[in-house]
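Before the break, one more example. Copy the sequence into your notebook; we will annotate it together after we see the structure.
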Amino acid sequence: MESSSTTPGGSSRREATRQKLYEAAVTLIAEQGFSATTVDEIAERAGVAKGTVYYNFASKSVLFEELLRHGVGLLTASLREAAERTAREGGTRVDALDAMIRAGLVFIDRYPAFTQLYVAELWRTNRAWQSTLMVVRQEAVAVVEGVLREGIEGGEFSDEIDVPLTAAALVGMVLVAALDWQSFQPERSLDDVHSALSRLLQGRVSGRP
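Here is what the structure looks like once it is written out:
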C-alpha cells in the first residue's frame, strides 16, 4: 500500500520498508487471520529479517494498528481529493458524492485484501486497536459528512437528512457493494459498478427522479 507522501534520505528508506511490511501483513492476515499470522511469516513475506519488523513496530499488534491507520488514511485522502477536485471544477455536492463513490471503488479495487480486513475488523469488539479503528473510521466518514452538510446549507439536500447516518450508509454502501462485486460479480467492470451506485445516489440522496 503506497504512502501518500515521501521523505528524503533514511526516512524514505524506512518508509519503503514499512510499506513492504504493510503489504506482507495485510496479505497474510487476510489469508489466514490475525492470530494465525506470525511475525516470522510477515518478515519472510516482506523479504526482511525478523528484527526489522520489531525495529519498525513494537509488536504484531502495533504493526496491525498502524496498518489500519495507514490504509484508512489513504482511503480518506482519496475521498477528500475527489470532493475537492469536484469543487474546483464547479460541480454540485451530488457530483462530489458521486466522485467520492468512484474514488472509494478505485481504492477498494486497488487494495482488496486491506478492504476485506478492514470490514471484518469493524465487526470485532475485543481487539486492542478498537479505539484506533473507530477514530480512523470516523475520519473517513467525516469527509462525507462535510459534503452532506454543505449540500444542506446550499439548499441542494433536504435539511431532514440525518447527516451522520447517511454518511455512514454511503461509505458502507461502497464497501459492501465493492466486496460483493469482487467476490461474486468479478466480470463486472469498475465503470459498471460505479454507474449502478451512481444511479442509486442520484435517485435516493439527491431526490431526483
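The radius of gyration is 19 Å. Residues 115 and 175 are 8 Å apart (CA to CA). Try to locate both features in your own notes.
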